[in-house]
Each structure stands twice: as C-alpha cells, then as structure tokens.
Design goal:
Elements lengths: L6 H12 L3 H8 L3 H9 L6 H10 L8 H8 L7 H14 L2 H11 L6 H13 L3 H14 L6 H14 L4 H11 L8 H17 L3 H25 L2 H7 L6 H18 L3 H12 L9 H24 L5 H11 L5 H18 L4 H5 L2 H7 L7 H24 L3 H18 L2 H13 L6 H22 L7
Helix pairs in contact: 2-3, 6-7, 6-8, 7-9, 8-9, 9-10, 10-11, 11-12, 12-13, 12-15, 12-22, 13-15, 15-16, 15-17, 16-17, 17-18, 19-21, 19-22, 22-23, 23-24, 23-25
C-alpha cells in the first residue's frame, strides 16, 4: 500500500533539516509557536492561509503543497466548506485548475454541497475567473443532471456563455448542448439566454435556428411586457431589473433578428416588413433615459437597414443614399462600420459597382476593429464573422478588378480569420478564390498561402490524432 506523505511530515523534516525551533519558524512564517506546534503534531487542521505562510517560509513556490492539502484534508474526509471555500478561491487565483477539478470530484457525490459550489462559481464568474468557474458549474451540472432544477439550467447557461469563443465548431456544439435547457430558468433569465443563443446561431449563419429562437423570445417577452403593465407590481418591476436591457428591447430585437434571417435568404420584402416593425416603437410605454437610448438605436438600425435591403435587392441608386446616411449618422460604432462596408461590398460584387473611393473611407476603421474585444455576445460572435466575411468580399472585389496585391492581402486575412473561427466552409471558399487567381500571386504570397495550408493541416493532424506515416 502506497503511503501518502503529509504536509505535517514535510514541515517537520524541514525544521530538522534547517535546525529551526517552532518559535523561530513561527517568526519567519508570521505565526505563533502554538499554531506551528499544532500543525506539526497534527492536533489542528491546516487552513489555506496558514499553508500559504508555511510554503513561503520554506522558500517554496505558491501552491506547492496544494495537492497534498487535498490528499490530507479533503479526499476521504467529510467535506468542510469553511476550509474548502477559501481553498477554491486561492486555487482560482493561482490558476490551479487541476486542484479545483480534484476537489469538485471529491465532494460532488453529495448533492448537499451543490448550492455552495454554485455560489462560489457565481462569485468566481463575477471576478472574471471563467476557467475556474466553469469547472464548478460543470461539477454542479453533472451532480444535478437528473434533478430538473432551475440551478441546473442556470449552470448550463453559464457553461454555454463561458465556452463560446473563437471556434465556431465548438460554439455550435455549446449551443446545441444548451438549447434543451433554454426554458428552465425563470422567465426573465430566459430572455437573455434566448438573446445570446440567437446571436451565436446568427454568427454561425444557422438562419432556421435564429428565426426559431427569435420567435420564442418575442412571444415570451410580449407576455412579460404585458404582465408588467397590467400588474404594475413592485415585484414585477424588481424582476425586470435582472435583465441586461429594457424589457421592450427583447421584442424589438426579435424582429431585428427575423429581418436578418430574411435578408440572408434574399427575401428583401419580408426583411423590410420586419425592419419597419422594429422601427415603430410608439407602443413602448417607458420614457426613462435607458429606454430612449435603445429606441434611438433601433431607429438608427432601421433607417440603415431599409436602405440596405433596397440596395441588396438590386436598387443600385440606393448606394448614394447609403453613403450619405453613413456620412451623416451620429454615434457610429466600430461595429457599425464593418457592417456598413460589408453591405457595400456585397452589393458591389453582386451588381458590379465601382466602390474603390468608398472603400478608402473605411481602411482605418478596419484596422482598429480587428483589435476590438467585447463580452457582449453579439459583438463577440457576430462581428468577427462579419469581419472575416468582409475580408472575403474585399478580396473578391479587388481580384476581379486585377488589383492583385490588395486582393490577396484581404484574402489571406479572411483565410486566417476563418481558420481562427474554425469555419471550414468559408475557409474552403477562400481557398477556391485563391486558386482561381493563383497565377497572379507573387512568390511571397504563394509561399504564405502554402504555409497557412500546411499549418491548418498540421493542426488538424494534431487535433484528430492522425499523422503522415510516410515520415
């Protein structure tokens, strides 16, 4: 039988090796003699704060004894949350994810500890320690998977939002796993969950799912909005404060999502009907500053999208109107700029319009936006997809007009972006465009293309566990 070493024995060995008395070591560790004695003799359990002091006093790296702490005080012991909670926070602070995983595995056989671990996960999430929080949410979700509890649903929502990132293949998996839980949180929490789920599907261009989720969100938001104004209860008003946006926004945003679905499908008349719907907000009863801000945003988006739908449907005279709108629009964000340029490039490529002078206005914005980050699900997911798509459209435009340097520059950027997003379909579209014009590429560009293809190939080999056995 393997003997498990103890922190107590390690400390005792160190004291003998260094010839230190309990009092002397206590001075070094900023602990009194009695506390050191109790630890060495095993008469008193060790706190993580004391462990950190001992570790530092022994000249060892932070967290050096954490695995032993788990062995000595957590595994095969009745869980003591007063000891475990600060230990988990400290592990999160030091990035000791394996230690957190071991603790969760050791105590989650008992459902009594789920509420406390959930609370710890929520606190870690609020601190921005997402990786550590994810391990706790996953542990609670696994323990409660047969309970059909609201806490389980919230855990699944948190897991979904944490896991969504650059990899669109992983995002699709995360969205698919979360969707069955979408109706389990309370009514208000459902609205933000539906909004985030719709935005992920939008970034993946899963238009049937975007429309399905948007219609569900609209129906639920309408019910809650009507209840709010029928009851006017304090409890009802308090519950709406949990939302990240005013309640009416979820109704109007559902219309905006449906408009984007029909625009993507080429049904511009239907897209216009939904655009007119979210432009008309006379029914909104609130008058506070936040409400007015969002009403202004919807009117701003609607004005632009009415022009865009007419432009993309073939009314090329609308291009001048769109440029004038862009020039006069106030509070234009970086996200607006990439969408504006994308719309222009789609129309230019579809109807063979010369927009070279217009493109120059956007160059600085494209550079700054490429470095932009956000925690908002739309900005985090939809905008990067639009940015990669815009690169492809720019490449298409320049290459077909024999501006090969600019074309290949934008094409390579789009390829790298789609590789980062793990979007195989559009990565292959970029490859096809490159190969179609490959005879016009300079040797350096061809080499960069081949290096990227080899990098993607090697990543796939590594990820899938296969190799080139020819050596």
């Amino acid at each position: 039988m393997k003997h498990t070493p103890t922190i107590r024995a390690e400390l005792d060995r160190y004291l003998q090796q260094e010839g230190l008395s309990l009092t002397q070591f206590g001075h070094i560790a900023d602990m009194n003699r009695g506390a050191v004695s109790a630890i060495v003799t095993g008469n008193k359990p060790l706190s993580v704060n004391q462990l950190d002091r001992i570790t530092e006093a022994m000249g060892l790296p932070e967290g050096h004894f954490y695995d032993l702490f788990i062995e000595n005080y957590i595994i095969d012991h009745p869980p003591n949350m007063r000891r475990i909670e600060p230990f988990l926070f400290r592990c999160a602070e030091l990035g000791k994810l394996d230690a957190i995983r071991r603790v969760v595995g050791a105590i989650m056989d008992n459902l009594l500890y789920s509420p406390k671990l959930f609370d710890i996960a929520e606190e870690l999430l609020s601190q921005g320690r997402h990786a550590a929080a994810l391990l706790l949410y996953e542990g609670v979700a696994e323990a409660e998977k047969y309970q059909h509890s609201e806490r389980l649903a919230v855990c699944q929502y948190r897991i979904f939002t944490i896991q969504v990132g650059d990899d669109q293949s992983r995002n699709l998996k995360a969205a698919t796993l979360f969707e069955p839980y979408i109706e389990r949180p309370d009514e208000m929490d459902q609205l933000d969950a539906l909004k985030d789920l719709a935005n992920v599907y939008r970034s993946l261009r899963k238009w049937d799912k975007v429309e399905e989720v948007a219609r569900i969100m609209r129906a639920k938001a309408e019910i809650q909005y009507n209840l709010k104004h029928e009851q006017r209860s304090r409890e009802r008003n308090e519950s709406t404060k949990k939302l990240t946006r005013p309640l009416f926004v979820y109704i109007s945003y559902a219309d905006l999502l449906c408009a984007s679905v029909y625009e993507a499908q080429g049904d511009y008349q239907q897209a216009l009907q939904y655009t007119y719907a979210y432009a008309n907000l006379d029914w909104v009863k609130e008058t506070d500053e936040d409400t007015q801000h969002w009403i202004g945003l919807f009117k701003h988006w609607a004005k632009a999208n009415v022009i865009v739908n007419k432009l993309l449907s073939g009314d090329t005279k609308m291009l001048q109107d769109y440029v004038e709108y862009i020039d006069t629009a106030e509070d234009t964000t970086e996200e607006d700029r990439v969408i504006q340029l994308l719309n222009i490039m789609i129309a230019a490529n579809r109807y063979d319009i010369d927009v070279s002078n217009i493109i120059k206005r956007f160059e600085a914005d494209m550079v700054s936006l490429s470095q932009h980050s956000s925690s908002d699900m739309y900005t985090q997911q939809v905008v990067p997809d639009y940015f990669a798509w815009c690169g492809y459209e720019l490449a298409h435009y320049y290459l077909h007009r024999s501006f090969y340097d600019d074309g290949f520059k934008h094409l390579m950027y789009s390829m790298v972006s789609y590789h980062t997003l793990n979007n195989e379909t559009y990565f292959i579209n970029c490859m096809g465009l490159f190969l179609h014009f490959r005879e016009h590429a300079v040797p350096e560009t061809k080499a960069a293309f081949l290096n990227l293809i080899e990098k993607v190939w090697m990543n796939n080999v590594k990820k899938n566990g296969t190799g080139d056995h020819r050596g």
